[in-house]
C-alpha cells in the first residue's frame, strides 16, 4: 500500500538533490534553454586558442617543417601512436576523435593555471578552466561512451552484445554495469583532479602568496597534462576493447 508513495517521495528527493548548486553561476537564456555561461565562455576561449594555433602554424606548410609545423606534426604523431597502441590496426578513423579529446582537455587544464581567469569580473560566479566544471567532463565522457558502442556495433554487428554474457551469463549484470561506470569514472576522475589542483593553488596563494605556490603550480601543470593523457588513453582503450572483444 505504501510502496507507491515511498517511490514518489524517493524520486522527488532525487529531483530536489539534482537542483542543488555549489557556489554562484552565471546563466544565459538561449531559446527555451538555460545554459552555463561561464563554461561556454572558457570553452570558446580554449577552442579559439586551438584553432588559432593550428592556423598560424600550418597555414603555409613547408617540405622542411618550421618550428610551429614541426611541433604540431610531433603532436599528431604522438596521438597516432597512442591510438594505434590502444585500438590496433583499425586506429585510423579514430585519430581525429582521440586527438580532439586530448587537445581540448590538455589546453583546458592548462588554461586554468596559466590564464588569469580570476581578474575577469562577472555578475555572478567566476571564470575557471572548462574541465573544472562537472558539466564539461560529463559532456566529454558521454561521446566516448557513444564512440565505443558505435565502434563495437560497426565491427561486429549485433554480435557485439555477446560480450555481456562472457565468460559466463552469470556476469551479465556486472558487464552491463561496467558500461555505465566507464563514463562516470572518466568524468569524475578528470573533474576531481582539476578542481582539487585549483583549490590547492588558491589556498596556498591566500596563505603564502610569495614563493610556495610556484612549485605547486608547476606540479599542477604536470598533473593537468597527465589527466589529459589518461582520458585520451582510456577512451582509445575502450574503443579498442569494444572492437576486439578483449578485457
TrEMBL record:
Main localisation: membrane
PROSITE patterns cross-referenced by the UniProt entry: ATPASE_A
Family annotation (SUPFAM superfamilies): F1F0 ATP synthase subunit A
Entries under InterPro entries matching the protein: ATP_syn_F0_a_bact/chloroplast, ATP_synth_F0_asu, ATP_synth_F0_asu_AS, F0_ATP_A_sf
CDD domains per the UniProt record, alphabetical: ATP-synt_Fo_a_6
Gene3D superfamilies linked to this entry: ATP synthase, F0 complex, subunit A
Pfam families linked: ATP-synt_A (PF00119)
Topology within the bilayer: Multi-pass membrane protein
A GO-annotated cellular component: proton-transporting ATP synthase complex
Keywords: ATP synthesis, CF(0), Chloroplast, Hydrogen ion transport, Ion transport, Membrane, Plastid, Thylakoid, Transmembrane, Transmembrane helix, Transport
Residues spanning the membrane: 35-58, 94-114, 134-153, 190-212, 218-239
HAMAP family: ATP_synth_a_bact
PANTHER family, sorted: ATP SYNTHASE SUBUNIT A, CHLOROPLASTIC (PTHR42823:SF3)
Protein task: Key component of the proton channel; it plays a direct role in the translocation of protons across the membrane.
Subunit description: F-type ATPases have 2 components, CF(1) - the catalytic core - and CF(0) - the membrane proton channel. CF(1) has five subunits: alpha(3), beta(3), gamma(1), delta(1), epsilon(1). CF(0) has four main subunits: a, b, b' and c.
Name of protein: ATP synthase subunit a, chloroplastic
Record organism: Houttuynia cordata
Gene that this polypeptide is encoded by: atpI
Amino acid at each position: 500500500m505504501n510502496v507507491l508513495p515511498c517511490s514518489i517521495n524517493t524520486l522527488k528527493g532525487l529531483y530536489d538533490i539534482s537542483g542543488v548548486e555549489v557556489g554562484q553561476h552565471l546563466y544565459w537564456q538561449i531559446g527555451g534553454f538555460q545554459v552555463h555561461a561561464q563554461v561556454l565562455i572558457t570553452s570558446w576561449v580554449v577552442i579559439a586558442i586551438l584553432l588559432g594555433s593550428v592556423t598560424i602554424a600550418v597555414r603555409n606548410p613547408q617540405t622542411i617543417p618550421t618550428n610551429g609545423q614541426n611541433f604540431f606534426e610531433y603532436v599528431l604523431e604522438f596521438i597516432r601512436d597512442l591510438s594505434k597502441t590502444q585500438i590496433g590496426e583499425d586506429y585510423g578513423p579514430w585519430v581525429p576523435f582521440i586527438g580532439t579529446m586530448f587537445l581540448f582537455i590538455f589546453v583546458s587544464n592548462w588554461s586554468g593555471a596559466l590564464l588569469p581567469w580570476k581578474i575577469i569580473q562577472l555578475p555572478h560566479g567566476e571564470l575557471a578552466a572548462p574541465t573544472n566544471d562537472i558539466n564539461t567532463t560529463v559532456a566529454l565522457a558521454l561521446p566516448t561512451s557513444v564512440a565505443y558502442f558505435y565502434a563495437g556495433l560497426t565491427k561486429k554487428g549485433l554480435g557485439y552484445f555477446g560480450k555481456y554474457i562472457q565468460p559466463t551469463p552469470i556476469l551479465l549484470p556486472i558487464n552491463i554495469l561496467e558500461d555505465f561506470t566507464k563514463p562516470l569514472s572518466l568524468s569524475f576522475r578528470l573533474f576531481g583532479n582539476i578542481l582539487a589542483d585549483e583549490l590547492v593553488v588558491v589556498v596556498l596563494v591566500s596563505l603564502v602568496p610569495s614563493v610556495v605556490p610556484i612549485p605547486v603550480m608547476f606540479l599542477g601543470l604536470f598533473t593537468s597534462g597527465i589527466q589529459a593523457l589518461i582520458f585520451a588513453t582510456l577512451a582509445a582503450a575502450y574503443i579498442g576493447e569494444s572492437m576486439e572483444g578483449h578485457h
